[in-house]
Amino acid sequence: MSLVTATVPAPVEATRRPRRQRHSAAATVLLLLGAAYCLLPVLWVLVASSKSAAELFSTFTFAPSTHLWDNVVQLSGYRDGLFWRWMGNTALYAGVGAFASTLISAMAGFALAKYTFPGKNLIFNLILAGVLVPGVILAIPQYLLLAKVEMTNTYWAVLLPSMISPYGIYLCRIFAAAAVPGEILESARVDGAGDWRTFGQVALPMMRTGLVTVFLFQFVAIWNNFMLPYIMLGDDRLYPITVGLNGLLNQGASQPAMYTSVVTGALLSIVPLVLLFLSLQRYWQVDLAAGAVKA
Amino acid sequence: MNRKLAPLVATLTALAMVSAAGCSGSDDDPGSGTTGGKVELTYWSWAPNMDKVAAAWNAANPDIQVTVNKQDGGDPAVTKLLTAIKAGSGAPDIMQAEYQKIPTLVSADAIADIATEVGSLKDKFPESAWNGVTLGSEAVYGVPQDSGPLLFYYRADVFDRLKITPPKTWDEYAEAARKIRRANPKQHLGTFSATDPGWFAGLAQQAGASWWGVNGQSWTVAIDDEATRKVAGYWGGLVQEGVIDNKPMYTPEWNAALNDGTQVGWVSAVWGPGVLEGNAKDTKGKWKVAPLPQWDAARPATGNWGGSATSVTTQSKHKKQAAKFIAWLNSDPAALKLLVSDVNVYPSAKEATSTALTSPPAFFANQADFYQIAEEASKIANPFTYGPNVNVTYSAYSDAFAKAAEARNAAAFTAALSTMQKTTVDDMKNVGFTVTG
User: Fold this and answer.
1) Which of A79, A80, B48, B106 suits B67 as a labelling partner, its CA being 20 to 30 A distant?
2) pLDDT category, B251, cuts 50, 70, 90?
3) Residue A255 with chain B: CB contacts under 8 Å
4) At residue A2, does pLDDT exceed 80?
5) Could you give the C-alpha distances from B313 to B4, B114, B176, B322, in angstroms and in order?
């Protein structure tokens, strides 16, 4: 009897305590699994790029080795450092493309949110429709258009199509509508500011956090883009890193595929992205929080 | 929202497609205007170090400057070229073209007939290579660059230890495969690769097959013929028996197997040493090469795997200068030397053996007669005609044989041939070719 009375309260305590602390074992496990799913491939790339060609597929998958530097040297030596040129190209495509795209998106989004003009809804709906069309589908038509003006196989062939992002314009419109109050624009006008000045000095700073989001989205999209440059470019000195690394793997039957170089290249190519995200994380978080409240 | 937008999206997509189709119809021919003075030519090639060969040409020919754009291998380059041809601009002047792609490129009007521009080069090349660029007609669609006669590579140390002599016939090859398997159940003499249709086509070529043929104005397709069935049945039997592996080549596992000695033989082409050197560094000095095993030792033959020609595209405005360069590139002794030493190819030109191929490849330094064996092989390549839709046939091969190899079932190997035959004929009829037989 005493045993029963002694044991009864215990389970009650046990179930109550976790509830108070809001711990859920299932959710934690699920999140851990999710984290592992995302991080394991990164870990693999990190470990694999430290292995020599002979070790790559023979030693234990997650056993690191000491050849990272050798691999970087070998990769850098490929055709007189072509890899670093690819890296520079990617930075150019992603940097210039994302900057121009953000600016265009901001202007278009601001105009669509704050101005009234005939055909506004039609234009916005067209842009919305553009959001639904995957960029991959457009690569061939874009190639054919640029071929008409003989601009394929140039930097412009990749930059121009990257500058227009329907999704960016859509986001900017939403953001301009929420972040830029009409009253402020009115008072700017009353004070004698023209359209450009209103946009550049009043609206743009207010939209800043949203623009960082658009910039990051577009930067990552261009950085990872494969299809467009793959179709547009014939000269491997213009390649971005994605297409270049793909080429290292597909050397044709009579050449050995350069697995270690590709893995090392993949690792190096994500370093700038990681840095960018870490440095812009502050804006990114603010923006997500702001969006959550205002939506 | 989505329902409202759906028609809009459909219209946009349709517009995009119409504009694509519209462009593909307008092939404006730039005409081959030749001007005096300096011309600049672009050259698409995926061979490594081709830019160094071009640099040697550029130094000696200031009026014809060639820029090499390195490509990602044969298939992507051809796809890009065909897209550029359809778009009407963007194609290079000069294009590396694998022999099996030439009929495709000719039927797409992508490469030009340069018979008048290159003059008489016929005598400088073996007949099978020259046939590959003329397709048996009066036209010349390129100049042969390299050939890939099939050979048999084997680990001499393993063969010596087990007292096996290099197989002269396919029966002996099967016997050797069994012996190796018995001695060490981890080792294989080779693998049947369902991802390398060019390799299988070469083996069928050796057996006497010619998958396509031209009969007046119509094509014939003979993939599911007796010779190819013999080859498929033979390899299917070995795979079913378990003495030959069923894994594809050029995978990381395959590289490792070559390097750690679990695969001790390789039926491959003359360019094999480069691959072995890259993938199986630790086995240097242990490999030897022998002629391909024969079906009939009294009538030796071989097939080709790989090899390519250099062609001038129809968009080039300087066909004459381009032809001059490719003639030099593929037949001049100085260029042949560079092709061997820097680009690492086995030139098609007959002269190469005496001028450029005087010492064996570095990875086969222990075998002084490497290029004599290769030359003998290149002389006995059987005639073989490729069709205009090799890509379709090759992907049918990969699909059908992947299943058969996975199942390790010999009957499925021969059945895969009828799938290939049917897919090929259906596609050709679909595109509008006349196919008889």
Assistant:
1) B106
2) confident
3) 48, 274-275, 278
4) no
5) 47, 10, 47, 9
Dump strand ranges (E) for chain A.
none
Tell me the one-letter amino acid at A137: I
Tokens of A286: 């603010």
pLDDT > 70: percent of chain B: 92
In chain B, which residue's Cα lies nearest the Cα of A247? B72
- For residue B8, the tally of other CB atoms under 10 A from its CB is 16
Top pLDDT among B17 and B259 is at B259
State mean pLDDT over B412-417: 94
How high is the pLDDT of residue B223?
Answer: 95
Of A101, A126, A100, residue with least CA distance to A112 = A126
> Which residue from B5, B8, B279 is facing A256, i.e. has the nearest CB?
B279
Residue B33 has which token pair? 């205007």
Q: Give the gap in angstroms from C-alpha B271 to the nearest C-alpha of chain A.
A: 6
Contact status of A95 with chain B (Cβ, < 8 Å): no
Q: Report the distance separating Cα A28 and Cα A73, nearest Å.
A: 42
Q: B98 near B310, Cβ under 8 Å?
A: no
Q: Which of A51, A142, A254 to mutate to test the interface with B (most CBs of B within 10 A)?
A: A254
What is the dotted CATH code of the domain comprising B149-304+383-431? 3.40.190.10
Characterize B374-411 residue by residue with b for buried, 16 or more Cβ atoms within 10 angstroms of its Cβ, and e for exposed.
Answer: bbebbebbbebbbbbbbbbbbebbbebbbebbeebebe
> Residue B421 in contact with residue B224, Cβ under 8 Å?
yes
CB A176 within 8 A of CB A214: no
Q: What is the structure's pLDDT at B358?
A: 85
For domain B33-146+305-379, the question of CATH label 3.40.190.10 is answered with yes
Domains of chain B, residue spans:
33-146+305-379, 149-304+383-431
CB of B16 less than 8 A from some CB of A: yes
What chain B residue is nearest to A128 in terms of C-alpha separation?
B5
- Helix/strand/coil percentages in chain A, nearest 5: 80, 0, 20
Domains B33-146+305-379 and B149-304+383-431 share a fold: yes
| pLDDT on residue B2 | 42
* pLDDT interval class at B8 (50, 70, 90): very low
Interface of B with A in 146-165 (CB under 8 A): 148
What is the rounded CA–CA span in Å between residue B392 and residue B425?
Answer: 10
Kindly list the domain boundaries of chain A, sorted by start residue. Answer: 72-294
pLDDT digits (tens, 9 = 90+) for B123-181: 999 888 898 899 888 899 999 999 999 999 999 999 999 999 999 999 999 999 999 99
Looking at the predicted structure, is the pLDDT value of residue A19 above 80? no
- Over 60: is that where the pLDDT of B22 sits? no
Q: Domain A72-294 belongs to what topology?
A: MetI-like fold (1.10.3720)
Which residues of chain A make contact with B87, given a CB cutoff of 8 A? 143-144, 147-148, 152
Under 8 Å CB-to-CB from B84, ≥6 apart: which residues? A147, A152, A234, B90, B91, B315
